[in-house]
Amino acid sequence: MTVTQLHPRRQTPTEAQPAPARPVYPLGWLRGLAALFVVFFHAYQNNRTGPTSVWPWSGTAHQLMLGTDLFVDMFFVLSGLVLWLPVARAAADGREGRPGRVLLYRRLARLVPLYFTIVLIVWGLTNPVWPGHWQDLLTHLTFTHVYSDTYIFWTDGPAWSLAVEFHFYVLMALAVPFVNRAVRRTTSRAGRLAVVSVLPVLATLVGLGDLLWSVVLTDQDPTNWSVWFSPLSRGADFGIGMGLAVLAAAGVRLGRPARIAAVVVGLAATGVLVMVRPFDSNATEWWHPLYALTLAVAMSAIVLNDGPWPRILDWKPLAWVGGLGYGVYLLHEPVMRLVGWMGLLPAARPGAWFMITFAIVIGPSLALAWLSSRTVEAAGLRMLSMIDKDGRPRDYYAHLSPDALEQDDSEEPARA
């Protein structure tokens, strides 16, 4: 045994170390499930009738249908969790995480190609006379349509949530350098976890503060869409998802009884919230952070666990739909508009007829989402090969550098 083995060199907490193997959580199917419910609700919404837009159902059934907007809050919680988890893990381990630009670039490569494609095609088809509503196009391409009461739902209604997410992608990317700097200066693990908890706490507090301002202090008009669907209004959703990431990175793990309790309590509380939610006042907006919290409790059974997970979460049809969730979410409204223009949708009427609309729309939406995953989205992901893991432009000719060639020459006799 050598002296080096007896007395290994002490490593500082922030010294570069290989990241340990991490569990891959089976969460993708949640996005697919959420996308299907969003399509189901929009088919329901599309079947309102009369000058006052009467909903197809009433009573408990209608209350349940309106509650499906909780799946949008689920999207935000999942995004906060997935994006902040590697940052939190690196901080907990005392490693310097990847640069913020890598986080931002990876998300843009995943989401922007399909988003821009849909926006440009739909806008071009619905604005055949130049210059058309160029403000609508400009705000959508810059993710600023959420600040316009006029254009927020134009071109592709669900795209408002992508604009909200984009704001948080930028916020997280800007925060990463500060987190890395603070981690380098912090020697204790508890201190590093405190550092990485700052942004989740701030996002949650700012989101709740925005709701306090808009619901209680100013009682904003219900049609001020740019207030109710702003990035600030969903700050608590992202903060809660990021907080769950910090708990996972901190090593919090739930035993089997606690996981069962988390699922039961989280889903039951979500169901109660759906049934008691008021829709006759602005107070209904408080339900979004409440949904985020109860959903996070339910998801903790998966996230605060290193596996194994129930086999149903790896069921291939469920996983397949989950992989297409983003495409289905963005594509279904243009599909619904197109088949409606072609006269293929049933006339709006009360009752369960909207399910026919759903059946007609979901097939082409899944097909186009699958095609997009193989073309547009795949091309975007290939853009990731243009940078290395530190976010620097990849050098495709490193093997031709003088140093590399000199090393090859020096090794030639050994190979011979």
Structure, explained:
By secondary structure, this protein is mostly helical. It contains 17 helices and no strands. The chain is globular. It starts with a helix and ends with a helix. The N terminus and C terminus are likely disordered.
List the helices and strands and how they pair.
Layout: H1 3-6, H2 28-45, H3 59-66, H4 70-93, H5 100-126, H6 134-141, H7 159-184, H8 189-217, H9 225-228, H10 235-249, H11 256-276, H12 287-303, H13 316-323, H14 325-341, H15 354-374, H16 376-382, H17 402-415
Helix pairs in contact: 2-4, 2-13, 2-14, 2-15, 4-7, 4-8, 4-10, 4-12, 5-6, 5-7, 5-14, 5-16, 7-8, 8-10, 10-12, 11-12, 14-15, 15-16
Number of beta strands: 0
List low-confidence stretches.
1-16, 411-416
> Helix tally?
17
Q: Output mean pLDDT.
A: 89
Order of helices and strands: HHHHHHHHHHHHHHHHH
Fraction in helix: 55-70%
- What is the quaternary state of this protein? single chain
C-alpha-based Rg, rounded: 24 Å
Question: Strand count, sense and closure of the main sheet?
Answer: none
> Kindly, what is the distance between the CA atoms of the first and last residues, rounded to a whole number of angstroms?
34 Å
The 3D shape can be described as globular
Report the structural category: mainly alpha
